[in-house]
Specification:
The chain has 294 residues and is of the alpha+beta class. The chain has 2 domains: 182 residues, Sandwich (Jelly Rolls); 103 residues, Homeodomain-like (Arc Repressor Mutant, subunit A). The chain is built from 10 helices and 12 strands. The strands form 3 sheets. It has a 7-stranded antiparallel sheet with strand order 1-2-3-9-4-7-11. It has a 3-stranded antiparallel sheet with strand order 6-5-8, with no helix packed on it. Helix 1 crosses helix 3, helix 2 runs antiparallel to helix 3 and helix 8 crosses helix 9. The longest helix has 21 residues. The protein is globular. The N and C termini lie close together (7 Å). One of its GO terms (molecular function) is DNA-binding transcription factor activity. Keywords: Activator, DNA-binding, Transcription, Transcription regulation. This is AraC family transcriptional regulator. It comes from Desulfovibrio subterraneus.
Length: 294
Amino acid sequence: MTCATDSATVRFWRDDALDAVEVRYSHFDGYRFPAHVHDTWSVGLVDEGHSVFRLSGRSQSVRGGQIAIIPPGMVHDCNPREGAWTYRMFYVQDSLMRSLARDLSGGCHDAAGSGGDVAAFDSLVIDDDEVFAALSGFQRLMEQGADAADTVDAPDAPDVLDKRSAMTEAFSLLLSRHGSVRDELPPAGSERAAVRRIREYLADNLAEKVTLEQLAAVSGLSACHLLRVFRHETGLTPHQWQTQLRVNHAKHLLANGDPIADVAFAAGFTDQSHFTRTFRTVTGATPRLYRMAG
C-alpha cells in the first residue's frame, strides 16, 4: 500500500512468513520527525539526500549510499539537512538479530537467544556497497511479493524460501562485517534501576492514564528528580515515552488487521482523530496506510 502527496510518499511491506522484519520506503520533502523510539532495530538505506540523526546526545551524518543503524530502545530523530530525502528502512526484531549474531559467533551463547547475548555494531553509519546491495535485493523481493499478491496470475512471484534466504543472507552479511555478539551488561545504579521500573510500569499500563505520583511511588524518587533522571536516561519525558509505547502497540494491532477505531481505544487514545494525528506525527504515515500494507 502506497500513500503519496506532493511532498511525501510512504509504503510498507510485511509478510506473515517473515514476521521478524517490516520494510518501509519513504520519500519526504520538508517533513520532520520528532524524537521517538522503536522497539526494533532500525536499519536504513539512504537512497538520496543528506540527513542528520541525533542519537543519545550525538549527531550522526548519513548520505545517499550509506547505511544507518539504530538499536532498539534508543531515542532518536532523523531529518534531512536540507531539501528532500529518500530512504528504505528495515524494522528488525531483536530476536532475529540475536539469533543471527549467535550463529555467526559459533553458537556459544544462550541457545534461546534471550539471555545475555546482544547484537552490537561499532559504527552506526556504514559504507558498504555489497551490504547495501544485499539489503536492497531483499527489499525488492518483499515488494515483488506484495505486488504479486494483488495480481491474479503471478507465476514469477518470489516464494517464502527465496525471501527468507535473502533476508538471512543480507542481515548475516551486515553482522559478519560490521557487528558482533556481546554479553549484555545489567544496568547499574539506583537511578538507572528506577528508570527501568518506570519503563516497565508504563509498558504494563500503556493504555491507562498514569500519574506522576504513581511513577514516583514505583521509582522511589521524588517527582522532580524522577523527571530529570528519566529524561537524562531516555531523552524523553515519561509521557512522551508512553505515547511512543502506545504507537508501537498500535502498529502491532494494525498489522494484524484490527479496525482503526478499536486500535485507538486499545492503545489508550481518547478518540480516533487523536490517534490518527499522533500516529502520523510519530511515523509519518496514517494508521489506514499502515494497516493496509501487505
